[in-house]
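User: Here's a chain of 492 residues. Predict its fold as C-alpha cells.
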Amino acid sequence: MNYADLFRATLPETVLELTALVVLAVDLGFLRKAALRRRHLAATVIGIAGCGAALWAVAIAPALTVGGQVQETLLAAGGAAGVAQCGLLVLTALTLLPLLGTKFTRNPGEYVAVALMAAAGALIVAAAQDLLVIFVGLELLSLCLYVLTAFAKRSGNSAEAAVKYYLFGGMSAAFLLFGFSYLYGITGSTSLSTIVQFLQTQNDLGVPLVGIAFVMIAAGLGFKVAAVPFHFWAPDAYEGAPAPVAAFIASVSKVASFALLISIGAALLPRVGFSGTILHSPWTLILIFLAVASMIVGNLAALAQISVRRLIAYSAIAHAGYMLLGLAFFSGDRSSQAVLYYILTYGLTIVGAFIVVGWVEYATGSDTLDAFLGLYKRNPLLAASLLVFFLSLAGIPPLIGFWAKFNLFAAVLSADAGVVPFSLVALAIAFSAVSLYYYLQVLKRVWVMPAVDEHPIWMHPVALATTVVIALAVIVLGCFPTLVQAWIARFY
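Assistant: Prediction complete.
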C-alpha cells in the first residue's frame, strides 16, 4: 500500500472534505455580507455538487488493503459497502435541499460543511473492515451529528437534545471500544477477516470473552441505530434537532450503522467459535433480544405520543427492530440485500416525512397532532405526500415500504432455525398492524378532521418539489420493486 492507493480508496471521502472546505471559503470569504437567502443557495448547491462528485468517486474507488502474509482489507469496495455509500450520498443531498427557505441558522456554510464531514464519516463506517477504521469513522460521524443537533442556537430544545445525544453517545463509544479491545486482545488483530480466521482455528479459546465482546459491541452499535434499551436519546434528538438534521440522523446515520452491522454479520458467518445451530450464537441471541424489545417498545410508545416528531422517533426504533431481525438470522447475500433494500427505502421515505413535518411546524409553530388538522385544505401537495410516506412506513402495498418488509421477512423465514423465525416474523407483522394505527391518527387529522386555521401553508418551491419527487419515487419504486432490487444485485 502506498499513498496513491490510499488516495484512490478514500477518494469519495476526500471529495466530501474538499467540498466542505470550498463551502466554508465561499460562504465566509466571498458571501459574508450577502443576503442570507443567497448564502443558503450557494452552500446548498455546492454541497449537492460535492455529493454528486463523491457518488462518481464511489464507482472508481478500489478496496484498500494493507500488505502482509494475508491481504487485510481496511475499506471494502462494492457489495454492501458500495450500495450503502451510494445511498448515503443521495440521502445527504436530499437532506441539504430543505435548507433552502429555512431560518434555523444564519451560518449555512458551517452547517453544510459539518453535514458533509458527517457524510464522510458515514462513508468510512459503511466500508470499514477494520476495528480501528470503524471507530474512527463512527467518531467522525457522531461528533458532527452532535454539532448539527445543536445548530438551532436560539432553541433550548435543540441544545437539550444535543447534550443528551452527546452524553449517551460518549457512553456508547466507551462500550464499543471496550468490545473492540476484547476482540483485539483475544485475536491479536483489528482486521475483521483475521479475527474470523483466528476464531475458526481456535474454536474454544476465549469463547466467554468473545461473548462479552459481542455484548459490548451490540450495546455500542445499538445506540447508533436507536435499538431498545439504547434508544433514550432518539425521541429528544428527533424532537429538538432542526428538521433537516433530524432527517439526516434518521436516514444517513442509520444507513451507515446498518451497513456496518451487515459487514460484521457477514464476517461472523459461519458463526465461528460456536457449535450447533444458528441459535447457539451469542451474536444471534443478542440481536434477537434487541429486535424484539425494539419492536415492542417502539410501537407501543408511539401510540401515546402527541408530538409527531416523537411519534416518528419511536417508529424509527420499531423499524430498527425489524431490520435487526433480518440481521439476527443472517443468511449471506439474501439477507444483506434485504436489509439494504429496507434501510435505503426507509431512509428515502423518512427524509420526505421530515420535510413535511418540518414545514408544518414552521408554519404553525408546533409539531403536535393538532397542528396537522385540515392540512389537505392548507396545502394539498403536502397532505398527499404525507399520506404516501406514512402508509409506506406502515407497509401498505403497493408502496415501497411493503416490499421492503416483504423481502426482509422472506429472508428471515429462509433461515434454518426451526419455528423461531416464523414466530418472530408473526410478531413483527402484528406490530406492523399496530404501527398503522398511530400513522392513521396523524392522517385522520390531515384528511378527515376539520381545520382550525385554513390559511394556506407556504413552502419553498425547491423543498416542495423535493417532497413531491420523493413521494412519487416511493409510489413508482413500490409499483416496480425490481428496479431497486436489480440495482442492489449489480453490486454483488
